[in-house]
Write a structure and sequence with these properties.
By secondary structure, the chain is an alpha+beta fold. Among the domains are: 31 residues; 119 residues. The strands form seven sheets. An eleven-stranded mixed β-sheet has the order 1-32-2-3-6-7-8-9-18-19-23, with helices on one face. A hairpin with a 2-residue loop joins strand 8 and strand 9. Helix 1 crosses helix 2. The radius of gyration is 27 Å and the shape is globular. The two termini are 52 Å apart.
Length: 862
């Protein structure tokens, strides 16, 4: 019956679209939601007239006489162009996705998100806002609601009409300030968590027992500080360099912690399958970002240049929306004159520049989450042991509505001192071998106390110099980011903000700890003034790419400064699981290779495709693989002449290497781990293993009559890779192209994953060929575990280059288009430019905006 219903739905949609094409009704129904962008639009709630200019790419520049009208108008244009995305994002962040989908898979995700308490955390953030910080949210919400007034779902987005055919009728609810704040939790989760890594490491200890620590050091080696420097170098520490801190390396497993009964099955089912269904929620080792700032002594203009490209999950439309927010007369009463990238649903500019400063962000990779093993009362699961006493859990009941029906799911959330018990979630219920009286609770800094992220963003938008910028960044609680800075006076800087826990001695944060004692309670957070920063370093540039933030010596300094209050032997580490610095090293090398940079040279860096894995492996592997079975010698010779290691879409060698690297990692580690390995740690690990031909990792545990060595595995992986690519691209290897395998498809939620091709082709973008790859500056990352499709999952979600000598010369791009309406010309018009590393003008001054022409809309008060 369900199959019949699906077939009938496809038939109905095809008939509707066909009749529409013939009668013009389809044009009306699919284009009536396109916004008005010229003339005059009268809206209730405005205090004065607002002018909105849109350029040829649909980018709005808003001019108003007051901040109230400015944020009101931002709410209007976000709703005009991206309403469905806003609708979907708020349902995601509040654990209400199933109201839109009616799907069992999203019901499980909602259950998990309600367990985490994103909705409860957003409410706490809202209640803690000052009146001054609440006002922009209220005005933004008023603008959204003014646009929504009197409109039905089909007036706003085509998704409502298609979902209605499935029996899911979605009422249009007013936009609330809570909806804007909730999205901060989604981004903090995406960028600031490592709970799944804790489970991964715990599973290794359960699997390998006494050998676990030795094997872990080879699989997850120490960060290669010597080869790939940290963001801040030894000679740039605020005080004289210190000896390596004895408190930096903590035991992986905390003393007294028994991992034998931990529910490590969650790592496979929760983080890598269920949450992968929604790219906006997926926490993946491929996520990262690049940014850098170059001082005037290294540029042709004599003024700084700043570049940024955050790497996030691929989606349609882009996660970003470009905008300019301008007060007609900039003053203390109306201080905004800013342009940049925004999140639809949130006021202000997240990344960009104003008339005085520019800023960009990348992810720190902080460890802001810990798992605690709870010892529950076997007779009453609402009680648990803490320091020898039995204490009560807080019980919260949540109701999830299921779209297209009257059904609901009731969810009981048990909350401990450390946080909610996440093993109660129905997502990933595989807890084989786990003790049901030892559930796991998740502690997360982002939900520990009210966050001030929006206050920080708006203060950055108003900042005029380094001091006001730092004061604004001090409010940035979560997710912790690497912020780079430049100003028109020629200064450059860097700051790490965020809630970074101080852990007890013996608590690394790398595995779950005993939650029946307060021994592993956090001691507090590192004060902002003690967090890493740089200002005008002598080298003349700062670059970040998710590598280690500081050298190990920093932690001696911080222990000396904070030891009297928090303990000299406490763990002050920001984290241990960074990217291993290959992108960061490449960016620094390219910056240093050019004496005087221009926008063009910086653009080339953003588009660089250098493959560090290939550069590490192939010089050793090629001589060994010449005797690989079933691979013609001319193929190996052809691979061997690929010495620039550029993963260009039109080249064939990257296709063979990437297939080989997948096979090599799987055959080296995957057979013993029991899952497909992933991460830049594998490059460092492989470098060491190639020099250790008989290491235990080389042995294939599935063969009982032989102990494999390095050479065996290299040849096997190479033969399998050649067979794979030949089957995919044909036997004429010189006609292979990386871009024929490595494609990007921009998927719209939820219809882009409907399984109905006519709908998917209507709402999705691509597939398109792309250059780049994993741990490459042009970070179009596929999964190293995905040897069948090589599809791109994480991308440079936008690119920006700001020229502080002439702000109107700045350039930018994001991945899809400004519009969220599939019938709009601006729905897909940036995809080709994005994949080819091309840009559009980042207009700023009013003269440049009006000179560029375009459409003008006037918003008028009623």
């Amino acid at each position: 019956m369900r199959r019949l219903g699906r077939i009938l739905l496809v038939i109905v949609i095809i008939i509707v679209l066909a009749l529409g094409a013939l009668t013009g009704y389809g044009v009306y129904t699919t284009r009536r939601m396109l916004p008005q962008i010229t003339g005059k639009l009268v809206l209730q709630g405005l205090k004065g007239e607002v002018e909105i200019y849109r350029d040829q790419y649909g980018v709005p520049q808003i001019y108003a006489n007051s901040p109230d009208d400015l944020f009101f108008a931002q709410g209007v244009v976000h709703a005009q162009d991206r309403w469905w995305q806003m609708e979907f994002n708020r349902h995601t962040a509040l654990g209400r996705i199933t109201e839109l989908t009616g799907s069992q898979s999203t019901l499980d995700i909602d259950t998990f998100l309600r367990t985490l308490g994103w909705n409860r955390s957003a409410q706490a953030d809202l209640e803690a806002l000052s009146a001054a910080d609440l006002t922009p949210l209220e005005n933004y919400s008023a603008g959204v609601n003014a646009y929504l007034a009197g409109k039905s779902g089909p007036d706003l987005a085509v998704e409502y009409s298609i979902l209605a055919l499935r029996g899911i009728n979605i009422p249009i609810e007013k936009w609330e300030p809570l909806d804007s704040l909730a999205w901060a939790n989604a981004m903090a989760w995406n960028l600031g968590g490592n709970w799944d890594n804790e489970l991964e490491i715990a599973s290794l200890y359960r699997k390998f027992g006494d050998k676990a620590e030795e094997m872990l050091k080879t699989y997850m080696p120490d960060y290669p500080f010597t080869d790939n420097p940290s963001i801040i170098r030894n000679d740039e520490l605020p005080i004289t360099p210190q000896p390596v801190a004895s408190n930096f390396y903590q035991p992986v497993v905390a003393p007294g912690t028994d991992l034998a009964k931990v529910a490590t099955g969650l790592v496979g089912n929760l983080s890598h399958e269920k949450l992968a269904e929604l790219a906006t929620l997926y926490h993946d080792a491929g996520l990262g970002s690049n940014n850098w700032v170059i001082g005037g002594n290294r540029t042709e203009t004599g003024k700084p240049m700043l570049a940024n490209d955050p790497h996030l999950g691929i989606q349609m439309p882009s996660i970003w929306y470009q905008i300019g927010l301008h007060c007609n007369q900039v003053s203390a009463d109306c201080p905004y004159d800013v342009v940049g990238f925004t999140f639809p649903g949130v006021p202000g500019v997240v990344i960009g520049h104003n008339a005085r400063i520019a800023w960009g962000v990348t992810n720190v990779g902080p460890d802001t989450q810990d798992l605690y093993i709870i010892k529950t009362d076997p007779n009453d699961d609402t009680k648990y042991e803490l320091d020898g006493k039995t204490v009560d859990m807080q019980i919260v009941n949540e109701t999830i509505k299921i779209g297209g029906s009257d059904q609901t799911r009731e969810v009981r959330v048990r909350i401990t001192r450390w946080g909610p018990i996440i093993t109660d979630s129905t997502v990933g219920k595989d807890t084989a071998g786990a003790d049901e009286n030892r559930p796991l609770a998740l502690r997360w800094a982002a939900t520990e106390q009210p966050k001030r992220l929006l206050s920080s963003v708006l203060a950055i938008n108003r900042a005029t110099d380094w001091n006001s910028f730092r004061a604004a960044v001090a409010l940035w609680d979560a997710p912790a980011q690497n912020l780079v800075y430049a100003d028109v006076d020629g200064n450059i800087g860097y700051q790490t903000p965020g809630l970074n826990p101080i852990r007890a001695k013996g608590h690394s944060g790398l595995t779950p700890v005993d939650g029946s004692t307060t021994q592993y309670d956090w001691k507090g957070y590192i004060p902002f003034e003690n967090l890493p920063y740089l200002y005008n370093p002598p080298r003349g540039y700062i670059s970040t790419a998710n590598q280690a933030v500081v050298p190990m010596e920093f932690y001696t300094q911080i222990a000396n400064e904070l030891g009297d209050k928090y303990g000299k032997d406490s763990n002050y580490a920001l984290g241990y699981q960074w990217a291993y610095g290959y992108r960061g090293k490449r960016i620094s090398d390219l910056i240093e290779a050019t004496p005087k940079h221009t926008i063009q040279t910086i653009s080339k860096i953003q588009g660089d495709n250098y493959n560090s894995a290939a550069a590490t492996v192939l010089p050793v592997a090629i001589p060994i693989m010449t005797s690989a079975a079933d691979v013609p010698p001319e193929v190996t010779g052809w691979l061997g002449v690929w010495t620039d290691y550029q993963n260009a879409m039109d080249e064939g060698q990257p296709a063979l290497f990437e297939a080989f690297w997948n096979e090599l990692c799987q055959r080296t580690w995957g057979d013993q781990l029991g899952y497909s390995p992933n991460g830049s740690n594998l490059i460092t690990a492989m470098k060491a293993l190639l020099n250790d031909p008989s290491n235990v990792w080389w042995d294939d545990i599935n063969t009982t009559d032989k102990v494999e060595t390095r050479d065996d595995i290299l040849k096997q992986a190479y033969s399998a890779a050649y067979k794979n690519v030949s089957q995919r691209l044909g036997s004429e290897f010189k006609k292979w192209k990386w871009g024929d395998l490595h494609t990007a498809t921009f998927v719209s939620n939820p219809l882009g994953q409907s399984g109905i091709s006519v709908i998917e082709s209507f709402v999705n973008g691509g597939p398109v060929a792309t250059s780049g790859g994993q741990e490459i500056v042009n970070a179009t990352s596929d999964s190293w575990a995905d040897t069948t499709t090589f599809r791109v999952r994480n991308i440079p979600s936008m690119r920006m280059i700001v020229d502080l000598s002439n702000l109107d010369q700045s350039i930018w791009i994001h991945s899809t288009g400004q519009s969220g309406h599939p019938t709009s010309f601006h729905y897909r018009d940036l995809i080709d430019k994005w994949r080819l590393i091309q840009y559009t003008p980042m207009l700023f001054t009013r003269a440049a905006v009006t000179r560029a022409g375009g459409d003008k809309l006037t918003l008028s008060p009623n």
